[in-house]
Amino acid sequence: MSLLDTPLTRRLGIEVPLICGAMYPCSNPELVAAVSDAGGIGIVQPLSLTYVHGYDFRDGLRAIRRRTAKPIGMNVLIEQSSQAYLERMRRFLEIALEEGIRFYVTSLGNPRWVVERVAPVGGVVYHDVTERKWAEKGLAGGVHGLIAVNDRAGGHAGPKSAEQLLAEVADLGVPVVCAGGIGDAAAFVAALRLGYAGAQLGTRFIATDECRASPEYKQAIVAATEQDIVLTERVTGVPLAVIRTPYVERVGTRAGPIARWLLRGRRTKHFMRTAYALRSIWKLKRSLMNGSSSKDYWQAGKSVAGIHAIAAAGTVVREFAAAARAG
Ligand SMILES: Cc1cc2nc3c(=O)[nH]c(=O)nc-3n(C[C@H](O)[C@H](O)[C@H](O)COP(=O)(O)O)c2cc1C
């Protein structure tokens, strides 16, 4: 049986078990469409589509649709601390359903309300998890699969290795997708051989022609080694994987003492998280297209180790698929 024939490809009706993960601020319509069109599946990040790339949400989904008729997905980031944000996310979900999206990747929080809305119309929900306890919570909410975010991932990495994490959740009875550390075709094939139903990639797809990140940011990914990836608390208040630039070296990676104290406090932590979220949304947007790294954060995971050239996103998907067919 082909390594490409997995519960993920069968359920979603796609050819390659390769997800271009949601990326704030890097997900733009051209990138999402290119991955889907080549046989994988691109995930829309709603804030990236609207706030960073300037689309009305529905128009943005239609811009993707004009580029491909194949399935796409949407990220529902469940951030409980802001009611206004949650309301907005609910509206985005309704529009996405109206526009025919049937695959949802939930992150953080309790995904039950997403499942309750999506499953009755034949939709599929996979939940991002970093440990077994979050997987159990997601499954109690009815999710259909898990995305296991490991310690090599870009964005907010988890504490466990790809092997450890699969061993922890394999017996839960749903397909598990590997997220983190996959930069080349060999790593993709290795994840499928390990028993994963697919892979979710972020960093590899930033270094593509279709991603609207600055040439300097893409080049920094190509040039970086695994040792250049550090976790900083200074952007979102929790560890975020970024490339160590002179700026990151200068300001350090720990949150300031006052911020740390406020993040710990029972009453202040929600306020502080919201403050961080708002500031990081602005900061990361600015960093995406800026050519200079003088005050910017370039997010990337340890998969930089396997990324040696900027390529078309479709070429990446096809190369990975060919390696899986051969292996
Ligand atoms: C720049 C960047 C932004 C990300 N933003 C999000 C996000 O908004 N929501 C989310 O669920 N995951 C986000 N992620 C995680 C990715 O979807 C994916 O799981 C991760 O990048 C996989 O690790 P890799 O970068 O080693 O391939 C982000 C990752 C990166 C690199």
Strand content: 5-15%
Sequence of strands across the biggest β-sheet: 1-2-3-4-5-6-7-8
**What share of residues is helical?**
40-55%
User: How many strands in all?
Assistant: 10
Provide a count of the helices. Answer: 15
Helix and strand composition category: alpha/beta
Please describe the topology of this protein.
Layout: H1 7-12, E1 18-20, H2 29-37, E2 41-44, H3 46-52, H4 57-67, E3 73-77, H5 83-98, E4 103-107, H6 112-118, E5 124-129, H7 132-140, E6 145-149, H8 162-169, E7 176-179, H9 185-194, E8 198-201, H10 203-206, H11 215-223, E9 229-232, E10 240-243, H12 246-251, H13 257-264, H14 269-289, H15 313-326
Parallel strand pairs: 1-2, 1-8, 2-3, 3-4, 4-5, 5-6, 6-7, 7-8
Antiparallel strand pairs: 9-10
Helix pairs in contact: 2-4, 9-15, 13-14
The chain binds flavin mononucleotide (FMN).
The site of flavin mononucleotide has 28 residues, from strand 3, strand 8 and helix 10.
Characterise this structure.
With about 325 residues, the protein is an alpha/beta fold. About 45% of the residues lie in helices and about 15% in strands. The protein has 15 helices and ten strands. The protein has helices at about 5-10, 30-35, 45-50, 55-65, 85-100, 110-120, 130-140, 160-170, 185-195, 205, 215-225, 245-250, 255-265, 270-290, 315-325; strands at about 20, 40-45, 75, 105, 125-130, 145-150, 175-180, 200, 230, 240-245. It has an eight-stranded parallel β-barrel, surrounded by seven helices. A two-stranded antiparallel sheet has the order 9-10. A hairpin with a 7-residue loop joins β9 (about 230) and β10 (about 240-245). α2 runs parallel beside α4, α9 (about 185-195) packs across α15 and α13 (about 255-265) packs across α14. The longest helix is centred in the last third of the chain and has 21 residues, at about 270-290. It is globular. The model has no long low-confidence stretch (mean pLDDT about 90). Bound molecules: flavin mononucleotide.
